[in-house]
Batch of 3 targets.
Target 1
Amino acid sequence: MSEKMQFSQIPNRSGLRTGLIASGLILSGIFIWIMDGKSMQPVNGQTTSRSGALKPSAIDGGRAYQYLKDICAIGPRPAGSAANQRQRQMVSEHFRKNGLTVKDQPFTGVDPASREQKEMVNLIGSWKPERTRRILLSAHYDTRPFPDQESDPAKRRGRFIGANDGASGVALLMEIANHLPKMENEWGIDLVLFDGEELVYGDNGDYFLGSRHFARQYLADKKERKWNYEAALVLDMVADKDLLITQEQYSLEYAPKIVREIWDAAEKMGERRFRKRVGPAVLDDHIPLNQAGIPTADIIDFDYPAWHTMDDLPERCSGESMAAVGRVVTAWLELGPPPKRR
Ligand SMILES: [Zn+2]
């Protein structure tokens, strides 16, 4: 991120709501930075170049929720663990069954607690790999090692399942994969699972290992590649029962056109769980992608009391919330590629 930006540690969730600004420190998991909000405006519609009737896919919330439960049933899934690998195999099979070409993108990271090297893998499922107009839909699939946001210190070494923070984005990508064969748009679509988003203990560790690796590879492959991604989304924490998705600040800064298209689609569909309002600034996997030149919006509801606690469980999540996001995302995909500028 650029040096002009100052990051804040939000002491607690009410701090987030009241826009308290502290500086310098990293909270955990996803970091937040509350911008001098006055300078930032939500982006609001009617300039979307592509119009016409929206065609959301018939996303099945019950099925998406079952995927979320299946993923959580594997247990905690931190980067480099056998459980993480099992999840990856499950998703690979599912992607293949739906006609995607699946590739592993391995890399090595270091566990900051044990100092051991960990083999990590981003999973890339490509829909129509021959197409040169491409979109990237992504989610992280590792879970934080411990629920270190628990108020009771004794629980901070407890079991962290990451139903919303981890499983929800993956489950929604799995459900979207079911609909790709029926879509009519001409995008090539890559569904990417990032590893190592949060192999972090308290404030010990580096975030976004997987998306950083992916971004580095993307830049390194620039010469051979015949195309660049035209847009990307990160789906993170999309299953809260009480879902409300505002416009994340880095997305507004880096990818305003995508934010406008997504929120316009939601508005046209009468989807009130998307709100045209400036939300918090969240450090997430969209930062490395944007910095590599891929315009990326983070679709996230950061207002989730169970965040990084033992309570981030399937019972806090809703298939209907995931379906709402899935319908908006697929309606946006179905707009198809805009005409190429000469
Ligand atoms: Zn997290």
Note: The chain has one domain: 41-333.
Target 2
Amino acid sequence: MSFEVMKDVAKPILTGFGITAKRLGRKKVTIQYPLERREQYTRTRWRHVLTRYDSGLERCIGCSLCAGACPARCIYVEADENTDEQRFSPGERYATRYEINMLRCIFCGYCQDACPTGAIVLRKDFELANYEREDFLYTKEMLLEPIREMA
Ligand code: SF4
Ligand code: SF4
């Protein structure tokens, strides 16, 4: 092999080593997920939660505005009247059924923006992987936040 050919082969290899050496001292950009997690942006929108008032009553009044605003048509709501004997929300109505098909959701947050009571919110839980298609149909029971213990 001639000297000129050897020079052509060695040059990119040495350039590569040079780039590697230059970056050795720098802070790593990769992290050991899932042992380490990055801080998320404050306006991150991931998994939906149906929230409650401090009293424990559900914020959702079953109005379906979220379903109407959803561009992916992945929210389904059925509503009924509260009674004095059975009260779920402070208003007249509550959602008897609330479902989100997470396989269709594009996490745009329009449902959150459309909700008049702040019931549906997208929070920071992003680990939504699952094995079966039916496990991506989130029911009201899965979405509703647990009743907080009063101090
Ligand atoms: S985040 Fe967007 S796509 Fe997902 S349920 Fe809400 S409105 Fe629909
Ligand atoms: S989550 Fe909000 S917009 Fe959707 S049905 Fe309930 S109250 Fe209405």
Note: The mean pLDDT is 93.
Target 3
Amino acid sequence: MTEAPAPAGQHTVREHNLKLVLAELVTGPGSRAELAQRTGLTKATVASLVDTVIEQGILLEADPEVSGPGRPSRMLSFHPEGPVAVGVEINIDYTAICELDLTGKLIRHEQHPVDNRVGTLTGVLRHTARICRAFVQGGRRPLLGVGLGVPGAVSPDGQVLRAPNLPVLNGESIGPSFSQQLGLNLGAPVIVENEANLGALARLRSAPDAGQDFVYVSGEIGVGAGLIVEGELFRGLNGFAGELGHVVVDRDGPACGCGGQGCVEQYAGQDVLLRTARQPDVEALLAAISRGDSRAWGAVDRAGAALGVGLASLLNVVDLPMVVLGGVYARLFDAITPSLQAELGRRVLSSGRGGGQIRRSSLGVDAAVRGAAGLVIDRALKEPRQLAAGLQSG
Ligand SMILES: [Zn+2]
């Protein structure tokens, strides 16, 4: 005779409560009593939940700390050898990868220069999978899953809708084929998302001014934006939201890879910027700027002005208060801000009410990979069963 299954509701409640406890531990360690207080659950409930997760090696309970009268408390936190998430970014001229722990802390990061424009889809995925496999095999902790960022619009079900700067990805659902190329025993599908959206999500996690909505601008060869509206990523109906690089600055301007003309990217994209400045790379451009090279300054001013015109249109439509500059714009922040600020001040209607503020992203080049790994962590913390499943397959 088989045992009667537990009522469905009971399991759901337990999973819901476990999610609450894990979410609290992301914000910081705590004793069982503190976690009960922070989640509003009883101490007995917290105890029954955490015992299992400690046994699974996901949480660690420290030795007792005596602090004042009463029973000494033992702090619970995520296990330092517990599961990790990997984020990968296929960009136009590089592939990046990182590993985050469950609290979102960066453990490892690598960036590999590679011209992904020259390969076939299979070639690009195979090369990226090789980098990812070597990276994963170089780590010691169980792998929860992989998130993959791409320079193009991505549909809610992970299909790359349009990648004007990396057209081999157009129309491809690359998650399953990438997963196959990886050949790792992943317990869950590879998550695919637009790199600017990922940068925005990474910033949202780490934001010092949490609670404030913003537009994250990812400046690479392509220019993209991730919109955080009411604390959440705004993807639009199909995933095309935030295509800032293809907002028109001059309708009779230079032809763009998207089929249009005079797009922001044709003035402010990294390749155009370097070409106009006559510099081989961003380091050389920074050096030219610091020695007062007039051509370099002219190119940066032109890029900042075009970016400002495009961003002003975006801000006037969506009424978001703040712009966060990432990628190459974070590196050029001091040089590009004056021309950008001048356009925003002149054109953004909310500028008299504090609109059009500009911030520099502190995350640097690893923003997108952090966002990609962050999505894997979010998924696991929302479905705690995945945490244990990840450990078994690791
Ligand atoms: Zn365009």
Note: The chain is about 45% helix and 20% strand.
